[in-house]
Design brief:
Elements: H1 3-18, E1 27-33, E2 38-41, E3 57-60, E4 65-67, H2 76-85, E5 91-95, H3 98-105, H4 115-118, H5 133-137, H6 140-151, E6 162-165, E7 169-174, H7 177-200, H8 208-219
Antiparallel strand pairs: 1-2, 1-5, 2-3, 3-4, 5-7, 6-7
Helix pairs in contact: 1-7, 2-6, 3-7
Length: about 230
């Protein structure tokens, strides 16, 4: 079942290691088959060293295991809330990469201060509100997803395909697993650059016209970056 998607999700998880975005088992990638409404996700707490496509777990949008001998990632309910709310999302990535997680732990959005940021993320990468005691004690992982969705109520999730969960860490997404991982790579680099930038000049502000130029030349109606 969904063998090609399992291969893609497995490779995407391994790519997180290759890019230095995860250590131990601190991360997960999932992808959804929109036609069937089924999600393929990394199993919980399994080492990346010998991970194989057949280790991936298939769940439905309610979190029921449809196929697989292992338990799905503990973050599965968070991924599912994102898929249910953002219909264009095809894959979700969660890491604890150092700089992005530092911004999340500081409960600060990552401001758009340069063209590197603007090339991928149209706006500041937002940070969710801190979770209440009730949210934490009631379906915590699902409530994490709810808090992400709530944070994007006035934003286009495909224009800024990343979020910081307060005191936790980053999530990114994309139309494919490869794209979602790429957004995680970019997010970590942007978080690092911004950390250095605000250390050098805490009062720096970005030129809004430059943001629009760089975002739209790659993603706008008349985009011209790259090859046709």
């Amino acid at each position: 079942m969904l063998e090609e998607l399992k291969k893609s999700v497995c490779q995407a998880n391994l790519d997180l290691v290759a890019h230095g975005l995860v250590i131990l088992t601190w991360g997960n990638v999932s992808a959804i088959d929109r036609q069937s409404g089924l999600v393929v996700i990394k199993p919980s707490g399994v080492s990346y060293d010998n991970m194989k496509p057949e280790d991936m777990v298939v769940v439905d949008l309610e979190g029921n295991v449809v196929e697989g001998n292992l338990r799905p990632s503990s973050d599965t309910p968070t991924h599912l809330e994102i898929y249910k709310a953002f219909e264009q999302v095809g894959s979700v990535v969660h890491t604890h990469s150092t700089y992005a997680t530092a911004w999340a732990q500081a409960c600060r959005p990552i401001p758009n201060l340069g063209t590197t940021h603007a090339d991928t993320f149209h706006q500041a990468v937002p940070c969710t509100d801190e979770m209440t005691k009730e949210q934490i004690e009631s379906a915590y992982e699902a409530q994490t997803g709810v808090s992400i969705v709530e944070r994007f109520k006035d934003m286009d999730p495909m224009h800024t395909p990343a979020v910081l969960v307060a005191h936790h860490g980053p999530f990114t997404w994309g139309k494919t697993a490869k794209e979602a991982v790429q957004n995680s790579v970019i997010l970590e680099e942007v978080a690092k650059m911004t950390s250095v930038t605000v250390a050098l000049n805490a009062d720096v502000e970005m030129n809004e016209n430059l943001i629009e130029k760089h975002y739209n030349r790659k993603h706008g109606k008349n985009a011209y970056y790259g090859q046709k």
